[in-house]
Design brief:
about 750 residues; alpha/beta; seven-stranded mixed sheet; 27 helices; 34 strands; binds flavin-adenine dinucleotide
Length: about 750
């Protein structure tokens, strides 16, 4: 899909308007919504409000002010040029579209727009006029030539008031001057005021509307980064509660917005520190991993063959993979340790039930291709799982060799086989029949990929819809490349799906771009699998979390992994402190800490339990220690302290001790009285877990979600709506790759059964 520029017009000296071909978005756009645009492969993601849309021509109109590097590049775009990605429509539409028509007609609206904020006002005023309401509009700028949409607004509004700083407008002064005159002198009555423009303008319009006792709505879309609720960069305090502009907004009740804090957050990404290309990577020295504390020669059955790794002091400055993987000889030697149990426990420990002894037997005999074919029957992601699965609690945790020595290195062997198959261009069996029945998969993470693969194998016509511009879910935007290379490993495993006939549509936010019901009713999908993950970051709710320099791990990792902000040639800005504190103890915390370390920071991990309870993979904790991360265990933050400019300067913590086991079976951390202390820091990364994005649940009638916003589904993925299945993190909350894969696989079987039963009726 090419998002081609159909027309372009200069609106003022630095502002232009573009009409772009984007039929799916044009079809669903409503006033108040926005899109995220990416020009080219290395470009940053820019949120822009949809100023107009036309269903018939399949176009949307965007107004862009050329102020930064990216928007200046966009200024050079001509008719016929195209954008790599446009995702949308995003955000909640303006609230008034939900008001019953009769009530709407009795209401008096006043719109106040400044700068490019005037452009998003236009679709709202136009929509109201089409529904019988003539709204009043005040627009302002320094001088008349900077105003946009003047003629369009004149035609669509009740009264248009134009004010400028100089004498070129109908009036001279600020928009608030006109607002005051209309209400106090002209005695105009309004029910609602909607302000869009610079934050400072919205702050003062809000103040005035509150003074007049009027309902005030403001649009905070300038705060957004990724637009899908994934990174948390656009969070803002509304009425004391943290909200995400892209999911909960972009429009909010102005009287509840903390404008000063929002303005500081906006300034944050203009101070780009730590955004430098890392020096050319030195060739990694072979370093031997000692996970499990094994250090002697390992030629015997009890001890595993060690795997080479980059030296910790070399790799902590680069993004190359840490673990270098087994050579063929090492893999064969390790595979020979397998006892080939008659009743293999390792298989039951694997949520996708790979026939582990069978593939290891083939490795031991040097038949790597056959080993790859055995894994392929049950897993779409061998090279991924071999790298990131928590094997110690799954397959390897059940290996009988582990009772007296080291379990078989099942993960490292799986990784070897996956890599070998890729490097040797092994093609896997394609479905030998097609049934022509359309099924949709929402989300291209491990759950969606696995579900799609199973359905393709059964002959279905599968389309994966993905909100982002890359496929792979957390595998591309979350897990860093020093653990999981994107270009080679993840991309290849996605390509394997394409070879099976899978169709892919990126930049489609289901629930916004198109609804589940429209997919079924208008696009004829007979069943749908939702694998939309749990991408919404959570925060602790302590004082100071909205200071500048406090970010979610999702935001920090997305900027670095998906948008490559650490590379000079990429345009996404990033902030990295000198002394970074990461709060949390899971894989996400380890990834954020090790990424910050590679970007030059001194990093401490703060975790409230002890090392034993750290939920991260054992290998990641071991690597983090080796690389020089400081662990402040049995420690819990109570407050983040800011300086006079609203930037974090310290984190206040208490020391903890472990008490009795709680409901999770882990010993409950308790505060040690009087143990409070402060750690100086200029960046805090919150890695406390994630919840599901409520978007699909809230836009699909009858699809029930639980208190944690997860989709309710039974063990086969059946949701509360017929024909709709779900699995992975969207159902379980943040968990693991292999559990998501297991859920995708089970759901595929249930979907097949459902469709076949329906055909018989
Ligand atoms: P995801 O991987 O989250 O994929 C969901 C996809 O759906 C995303 O691409 C998203 O953009 C898309 N989507 C969301 N909403 C919509 C919509 N409305 N329309 C269209 N598309 C949508 N697990 C491990 O086993 N080992 C690890 O080492 C590990 N490390 C991790 C490190 C990090 C930083 C993170 C964040 C997670 C880690 N996990 C790890 C957890 C693991 O990655 C997840 O459990 C797993 O990816 C869940 O898979 P999923 O398919 O359910 O969801």
């Amino acid at each position: 899909m090419k998002y081609t520029v159909i027309s372009k017009k200069l609106l003022s000296e630095d502002t232009f308007q573009m009409q772009i071909y984007a039929p799916r978005i044009a079809n669903s756009a409503l006033p108040g919504q926005f899109v995220i645009i990416r020009m080219r492969d290395k470009s940053e993601r820019i949120p822009l409000t949809i100023s107009d849309h036309d269903v018939e021509t399949g176009t949307i109109t965007l107004v862009v002010k050329a102020i930064g590097k990216s928007t200046k590049t966009m200024e050079n775009y001509q008719v016929g040029d195209y954008f790599e990605d446009i995702v949308g429509p995003l955000g909640r539409p303006s609230e008034f579209i939900h008001i019953p028509e009769e009530e709407l007609r009795s209401k008096k609206f006043l719109f106040i727009g400044g700068g490019v904020g005037i452009a998003p006002i236009y679709p709202q005023v136009k929509w109201l006029q089409e529904h019988g309401v003539n709204a009043d509009v005040i627009i302002g700028a320094k001088t008349y030539s900077l105003l946009v949409f003047v003629e369009e607004l004149r035609q669509r509004s009740g009264n248009l008031y134009i004010t400028t700083d100089d004498t070129t407008g109908d009036m001279q002064g600020l928009v608030t001057d006109v607002f005051r005159k209309l209400v106090q002198e002209d005695k105009k009555q309004y029910d609602e005021v909607i302000a869009i423009g610079p934050m400072i303008m919205m702050k003062f319009v809000t103040k005035m509307a509150m003074e007049f006792g009027l309902k005030i709505t403001v649009s905070l879309n300038a705060l957004m980064v990724d637009g899908t609720g994934m990174c948390g960069a656009c969070r803002v305090r509304i009425g004391g509660e943290t909200k995400f502009t892209c999911v909960d907004g972009p429009e909010f009740d102005g009287s509840l917005v903390n404008f000063d804090e929002a303005m500081k957050r906006q300034a944050m990404y203009n101070t780009v520190e730590g955004r430098k290309e890392l020096k050319a990577e030195e060739d990694a020295e072979a370093h031997v991993c000692h996970v499990g504390g094994i250090s002697e020669e390992h030629k015997d059955r009890l001890h595993r063959v060690l795997v080479p790794e980059q030296d910790p002091n070399v790799r902590n400055k680069n993004f190359q993979e840490v673990c270098l993987g087994y050579s063929a000889e090492d893999a064969i030697e390790e595979a020979h340790r397998c006892l080939q149990c008659k009743n293999p426990q390792c298989v039951s420990g694997c949520p996708v039930n790979i026939n582990i002894p069978a593939f290891i037997k083939q490795v031991a005999e040097g038949n790597f291709e056959e080993a790859a074919r055995i894994i392929d029957r049950d897993s779409a992601l061998p090279a991924v799982c071999g790298r990131v699965c928590p094997q110690e609690t799954q397959c390897e945790g059940k290996c009988v060799l582990g009772r007296k020595g080291d379990p078989i290195a099942i993960g490292k062997l799986e990784r070897f086989v996956g890599d070998w198959a890729r490097e040797n261009h092994i093609e896997f069996q394609k479905p030998n029949h097609k049934n022509g029945i359309k099924v949709a998969v929402i989300g291209s993470g491990p759950a969606g990929i696995t579900c799609a693969k199973e359905l393709l194998t059964k002959g279905y016509d599968v389309t994966i819809f993905e909100a982002l511009h890359q496929f792979g879910g957390v595998l591309v935007y979350g897990i860093p490349s020093f653990r999981l290379p994107k270009e080679t490993v993840v991309r290849h495993e996605i390509e394997n799906l394409r070879k099976l006939g899978c169709k892919f549509e990126k930049n489609v936010v289901v629930g916004r771009t198109i609804s589940i019901d429209a997919l079924m009713e208008k696009e004829n999908f007979k069943a749908i699998f939702i694998g939309s993950g749990a991408g919404l970051p959570t925060f602790m709710g302590i004082e100071g979390e909205n200071l500048c320099g406090v970010v979610s791990a999702n935001e920090f990792l997305t900027r670095n992994n998906l948008l490559f902000s650490y590379k000079e040639e990429y345009e996404t800005p990033n902030y990295v402190g000198k002394n970074v504190v990461v709060v949390g103890g899971g894989n996400v915390a380890m990834d954020a800490a090790r990424t910050a370390l590679r970007l030059g920071a001194n990093v401490s991990i703060v975790y409230r339990r002890s090392e034993e309870e750290l939920p991260a993979r054992k290998e990641e904790v071991h690597h983090a220690h080796e690389e020089g991360i400081d662990f402040q265990l049995l420690t819990n933050p109570t407050e983040i302290i800011g300086d006079e400019n609203g930037w974090v300067k310290a984190i206040r913590c208490v020391r903890m001790q472990l008490g009795e086991a709680d409901a999770s079976g882990r010993r409950k951390p308790e505060v040690i009285a009087g143990s409070e202390f402060e750690m100086p820091t200029d960046m805090v990364i919150m890695a406390l877990g994630t919840t599901s994005n409520p978007l699909i649940g809230s836009t699909t009638p009858g699809l029930k979600i639980n208190a944690k916003k997860s989709i309710i589904a039974d063990e086969n993925g059946q949701t509360t709506r017929e024909g709709i299945f779900a699995g992975g993190d969207a159902v379980n909350g943040s968990a693991t790759v292999i559990l998501a894969m297991g859920a995708g696989k089970k759901a595929a079987f249930a979907m097949d059964e459902y469709i076949q039963q329906k055909l018989k009726r």
